[in-house]
C-alpha cells in the first residue's frame, strides 16, 4: 500500500517537474514584462491637477479662478514673470477642466482638453457676474476698448455685456467713468436673495420667530402703508438689468409682468424691491456721478468752430449748453462725468483737460455772461413791445383828435 | 419577536443605511429603513451657481451612475430653452450612457453574487466590467466622474481608432457575458438562493411605485423610460422583462439589459458614422423652468430645473429611482425565509443610498405638521 502511494507521489512530482521546467515557461517566467500600454495613460486622460503650461501668456484676468467650481485656484504674484499667475491646489482640483476652457490665452492644460476644444463654443462660468445699467451708461465705449475678450457690444442707446464671453476680469469697472454704472452680483448674493424670496413667499419668517415678530410685522405693514402714501412715485423695471430670475414674481404674482416689463400699480407689493438681485426694480431717478473730481474738460473758445458735435454727442443731460452770446458750447463741471467723448470727437482739438477749480470759474463767468445777455435781450424785447403798443395808441389818439378838429 | 439591526456601518453595506429586521426565529416578518447619514444638500449648494458649475455638482449626486445625472440635467435645460444639439452629440451621449449602464449592471450583479457567496461569478463580472471602464476613460477622459457632458452638446469628439477599439472590446464583452449569463441561469445553487425569494408582483409595485429593473422583473416592460426618449426611439430596441419578480429575475433583467445595451451602442455607432459637423453648440439659455425624465440604471430619474436668463440656476429638484425601490424592499422582505436572504434582497434592488438622500422633510415646531421639501412648496 505504502509503496503504491509513494510511487503515486513520485509520478505526480515528476509530471509537475516535467510540466513546469519547459523551456518556454522558464523564458516567460524569467523575462516577464508587463505590456507598455498598461503603464501609459490614454491621451485624453485628465490627471489631477491642472498644469500651468505657458505662464508667459497669462494676462492675470482671473477667469480660471471664477470658473473653478471647487475654489481650487488662486492668483499669486510671481516674481519671475512680474505678474499674477494661477496656483492650483492639488487637493481641491476635481479635473472638470472648466478653467482650461475659459482661459482666453490658453495658459492651462489638462490631458488633451485644450487641443480637443479649441475654437468650440463655450459659455464661461463665473463667480461674479457683471451687468451694465442702461440708465447710467453714457455710451463712451471706454469699457468696450479695454475689454480683453471683446465681450462688450453697443447699440444706439447703451452698451451691454455678452454674458457667455465675459471673463469677470473687472477691467471695465476700473475704466468706467460713472460710479455704479456697471453692477456686479455674485453667487453668494444670489443665494441670499433666493433664500429671502422663498422665506417671504411661504411666510417662513413669521413661522420661525415668535408671536412678537408678527406684531412687529403688522407695525411695519402700517409704516409701509404710510410710506406708500408719502411716496407717490411709481416703480419701473430697467430692461438691461433684469436677468429674469422671477424672484419678484414669486412674491408678487399679479403685480409684475416680466414678459412686457410692466407693473400693475394697484397690486404691486413693496417687498419686491428688496428681493431683486440687480436693482432692476427702481423708484425715483438715478444720478450720473463721475469718478474723477480733480480735473475737468473745458472748451477753448479761441479754437472752437461752433460745429456743436460735442453738444450732440454728450449723453449726460444739460451738461453742455450753448451760450447765446458767443454761440459756442460750454461744459458744466458739476454735471460732467469726464467720459472724454467730446474730447475725442472734437475735430479741431478745442476741448482740453484742466483742473476743476479753473474750469468752475470759467463756467460761472460764461454762465453769468449768458444769463445777463438773456436778461438784457428779454428786457429789450419787452420794452420794444411796449414801445410799439404805446406808439400805435398815440397814433390812434392823434387820428381821433385830427378827426374832431376837422 | 426580535429586532436585528443592520448598519449604519456593517460589512455588507457599501453605503451607510440602517435596516431594522423584525424576525421570528430566522423568518423575516417586517422591516424598517432609516436614512439620512449621507445627506449633502447638493440642491442648496447649486442654487445661484452657473449651469456649467452645476453640472459638475450634479455629477456627484451618485457615485456609480454619474453620467445619467448630467445627461438628464443637460436635456432638461435644453428642452425648455429650445437648444437643438448636433446629431453627433446625441449619439455620443447614448454611447456613453449605455457604457455606463453596462458597468453599473455588472457591478450590481457582482455584488449580488458576492452576497449569495458565489464569488467566482462575482469576480467574472468585475473582470468584464474593467474593460468597459477603460472604454469610458478613453472616450471621456475619466473613469467615474467624467465631466463629458455640457449643456448644448458634449466636450470632445471620438476618432476612428476609438470606434474600432469600442467594437473590439464590445465583441469580447459579449462572449464573456454569454458565459456569465449561462452560468447564472443554469447554476443550481444560484437558483436556490434566488428563485421565489424577495417576490414583488404587480400589486406591490403599483402600491410602492417601484421602477426600473424591479418593475421590469415583475412583468412591467412599460416602466422603461428609454421607450419615450426621442433619440432611443430611432433605434431598434425592446425592453427586457421577466415574470416572477424575485431576486433571480431581477438579476436576469440586468444581465439581458447589458446585452441589449451592447446592441444599442453598435446601432448608435452606426448612426454616428453617418453624421458630420461639430459636437457642441452655443447654449443660449432663457429664463424659465422645466422638467425631464430619463431611464437611469436603477429606474426613472426626474429633474426639475429653474434658471435665469444667462444660465444661473435658481432652483433644482432631483428625484432618484432608489427612493421608490427602497419602499418596495419592505414588501419583498415578507418572502424572505432567512436573514441572509434579506441581505441578498437588499443587494438585488441595487440600492444607491447617497443618491436617495435628496428629500428633506420639514417639521413645523409650532403645529407639529410635516411636509415634503418640494419645488414649489417651501
What does it look like?
The complex is a heterodimer of chains A (406) and B (378). Chain A has 406 residues and is of the alpha+beta class. Chain A has 4 domains: 28-125, Alpha-Beta Plaits, CATH 3.30.70; 128-183, 2-Layer Sandwich (Alpha-Beta Plaits); 189-282, no CATH class; 295-379, Alpha-Beta Plaits (2-Layer Sandwich). Chain A has helices at residues 2-20, 23-30, 36-39, 63-67, 98-102, 113-116, 142-146, 171-175, 187-201, 204-208, 211-230, 247-251, 272-275, 309-313, 341-345, 356-405; strands at residues 51-52, 73-78, 83-88, 108-109, 128-132, 152-154, 159-161, 182-186, 236-237, 256-257, 262-263, 281-282, 295-299, 320-322, 329-331, 351-355. In chain A, the strands form 8 sheets. In chain A, strands 1-4 form a two-stranded antiparallel ribbon. In chain A, strands 2-3 form a two-stranded antiparallel sheet. Chain A has a two-stranded antiparallel sheet with strand order 5-8. The longest helix of chain A is centred in the C-terminal third of the chain and has 50 residues, at 356-405. Chain A starts with a helix and ends with a helix. Chain B has 378 residues and is α+β, with helices and mostly antiparallel strands. Chain B has one domain (37-334): Cytochrome-c3 Hydrogenase, chain B. Helix content of chain B is 47%, strand content 15%. Chain B has helices at 42-46, 51-59, 66-80, 87-115, 119-140, 160-186, 188-194, 202-208, 213-217, 247-273, 322-332, 339-348, 353-356, and strands spanning 2-6, 18-24, 27-34, 149-150, 153-154, 288-296, 299-307, 313-319, 361-363, 370-372. Chain A binds chain B through residues 42, 44-46, 67, 69, 94-98, 111, 113, 116-117, 120-123, 125-126, 129, 163-164, 187-191, 194, 198, 202, 204, 207, 242-246, and chain B through 47-53, 56-57, 137-142, 145, 147, 150, 152, 155-157, 278-284, 286-288, 306, 308-312, 314-315, 364, 366, 377-378.
Amino acid at each position: 500500500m505504502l509503496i503504491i502511494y509513494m510511487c503515486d507521489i513520485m509520478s505526480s512530482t515528476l509530471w509537475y517537474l516535467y510540466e513546469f521546467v519547459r523551456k518556454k515557461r522558464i523564458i516567460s517566467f524569467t523575462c516577464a514584462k508587463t505590456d507598455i500600454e498598461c503603464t501609459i495613460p490614454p491621451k485624453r486622460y485628465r490627471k489631477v491637477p491642472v498644469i500651468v503650461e505657458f505662464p508667459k501668456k497669462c494676462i492675470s484676468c482671473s477667469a480660471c479662478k471664477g470658473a473653478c467650481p471647487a475654489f481650487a485656484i488662486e492668483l499669486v504674484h510671481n516674481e519671475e514673470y512680474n505678474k499674477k499667475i494661477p496656483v492650483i491646489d492639488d487637493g481641491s482640483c476635481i479635473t472638470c477642466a472648466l478653467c482650461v476652457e475659459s482661459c482666453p490665452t490658453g495658459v492651462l492644460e489638462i490631458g488633451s482638453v485644450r487641443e480637443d476644444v479649441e475654437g468650440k463654443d463655450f459659455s464661461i462660468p463665473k463667480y461674479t457676474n457683471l451687468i451694465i445699467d442702461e440708465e447710467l451708461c453714457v455710451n463712451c465705449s471706454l469699457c468696450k476698448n479695454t475689454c480683453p475678450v471683446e465681450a462688450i457690444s453697443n447699440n444706439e442707446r447703451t452698451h451691454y455685456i455678452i454674458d457667455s464671453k465675459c471673463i469677470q476680469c473687472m477691467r471695465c469697472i476700473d475704466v468706467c467713468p460713472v460710479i455704479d454704472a456697471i453692477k456686479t452680483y455674485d453667487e453668494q448674493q444670489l443665494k441670499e436673495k433666493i433664500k429671502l424670496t422663498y422665506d417671504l413667499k411661504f411666510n417662513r419668517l413669521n413661522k420661525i420667530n415668535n408671536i412678537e415678530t408678527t406684531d412687529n410685522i403688522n407695525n411695519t405693514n402700517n409704516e409701509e402703508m404710510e410710506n406708500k402714501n408719502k411716496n407717490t412715485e411709481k416703480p419701473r423695471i430697467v430692461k438691461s438689468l433684469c436677468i429674469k430670475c422671477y424672484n419678484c414674481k414669486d412674491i408678487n404674482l399679479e403685480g409684475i409682468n416680466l414678459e412686457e416689463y410692466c407693473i400693475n400699480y394697484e397690486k404691486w407689493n413693496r417687498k419686491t424691491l428688496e428681493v431683486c438681485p440687480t436693482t432692476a426694480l427702481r423708484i425715483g431717478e438715478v444720478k450720473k456721478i463721475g469718478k474723477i473730481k480733480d480735473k475737468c474738460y473745458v472748451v477753448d473758445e479761441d479754437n472752437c468752430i461752433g460745429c456743436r458735435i460735442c453738444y450732440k454727442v454728450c449723453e449726460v443731460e444739460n451738461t453742455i449748453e450753448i451760450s447765446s452770446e458767443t454761440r459756442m458750447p460750454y461744459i458744466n463741471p458739476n454735471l460732467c462725468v469726464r467720459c472724454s467723448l467730446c474730447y475725442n470727437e472734437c475735430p479741431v482739438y478745442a476741448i482740453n483737460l484742466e483742473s476743476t477749480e479753473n474750469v468752475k470759474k470759467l463756467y460761472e463767468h460764461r454762465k453769468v455772461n449768458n444769463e445777463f445777455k438773456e436778461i438784457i435781450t428779454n428786457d429789450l424785447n419787452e420794452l420794444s413791445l411796449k414801445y410799439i403798443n404805446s406808439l400805435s395808441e398815440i397814433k390812434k389818439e392823434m387820428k381821433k383828435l385830427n378827426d374832431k378838429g376837422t | 419577536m426580535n429586532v436585528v439591526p443592520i448598519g449604519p456601518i456593517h460589512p455588507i453595506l457599501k453605503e451607510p443605511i440602517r435596516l431594522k429586521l423584525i424576525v421570528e426565529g430566522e423568518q423575516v416578518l417586517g422591516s424598517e429603513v432609516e436614512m439620512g447619514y449621507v445627506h449633502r444638500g447638493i440642491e442648496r449648494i447649486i442654487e445661484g451657481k452657473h449651469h456649467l458649475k452645476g453640472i459638475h455638482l450634479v455629477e456627484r449626486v451618485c457615485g456609480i451612475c454619474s453620467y445619467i445625472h448630467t445627461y438628464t440635467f443637460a436635456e432638461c435645460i435644453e428642452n425648455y430653452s429650445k437648444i437643438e444639439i448636433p446629431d453627433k452629440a446625441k449619439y455620443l451621449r447614448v454611447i456613453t450612457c449605455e457604457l455606463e449602464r453596462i458597468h453599473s449592471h455588472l457591478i450590481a450583479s457582482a455584488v449580488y453574487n458576492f452576497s449569495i457567496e458565489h464569488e467566482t461569478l462575482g469576480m467574472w463580472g468585475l473582470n468584464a466590467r474593467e474593460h468597459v471602464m477603460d472604454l469610458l476613460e478613453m472616450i471621456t477622459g475619466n473613469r467615474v466622474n467624467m465631466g463629458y457632458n455640457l449643456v448644448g452638446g458634449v466636450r470632445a469628439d471620438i476618432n476612428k481608432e476609438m470606434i474600432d477599439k469600442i467594437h473590439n472590446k464590445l465583441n469580447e464583452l459579449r462572449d464573456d457575458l454569454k458565459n456569465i449569463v449561462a452560468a447564472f441561469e443554469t447554476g443550481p445553487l444560484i437558483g436556490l438562493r434566488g428563485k421565489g425569494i424577495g417576490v414583488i408582483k404587480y400589486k406591490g409595485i403599483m402600491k410602492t411605485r417601484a421602477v426600473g429593473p424591479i418593475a421590469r422583473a415583475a412583468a412591467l416592460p412599460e416602466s422603461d423610460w428609454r421607450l419615450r426618449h426621442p433619440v432611443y426611439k430611432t433605434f431598434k430596441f425592446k425592453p427586457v422583462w421577466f415574470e416572477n419578480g424575485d431576486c433571480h429575475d431581477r438579476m436576469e433583467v440586468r444581465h439581458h439589459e447589458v446585452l441589449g445595451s451592447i446592441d444599442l451602442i453598435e446601432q448608435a455607432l452606426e448612426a454616428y458614422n453617418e453624421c458630420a459637423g461639430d459636437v457642441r453648440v452655443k447654449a443660449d439659455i432663457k429664463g424659465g423652468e422645466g422638467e425631464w425624465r430619463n431611464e437611469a440604471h436603477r429606474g426613472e430619474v426626474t429633474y426639475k430645473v429653474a434658471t435665469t436668463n444667462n444660465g444661473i440656476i435658481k432652483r433644482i429638484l432631483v428625484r432618484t429611482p432608489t427612493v421608490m425601490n427602497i419602499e418596495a424592499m419592505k414588501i419583498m422582505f415578507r418572502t424572505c425565509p432567512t436573514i441572509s436572504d434579506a441581505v441578498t434582497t437588499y443587494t438585488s434592488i441595487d440600492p444607491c443610498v447617497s443618491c436617495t438622500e435628496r428629500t428633506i422633510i420639514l417639521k413645523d415646531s409650532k403645529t407639529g405638521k410635516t411636509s415634503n421639501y418640494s419645488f414649489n412648496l417651501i
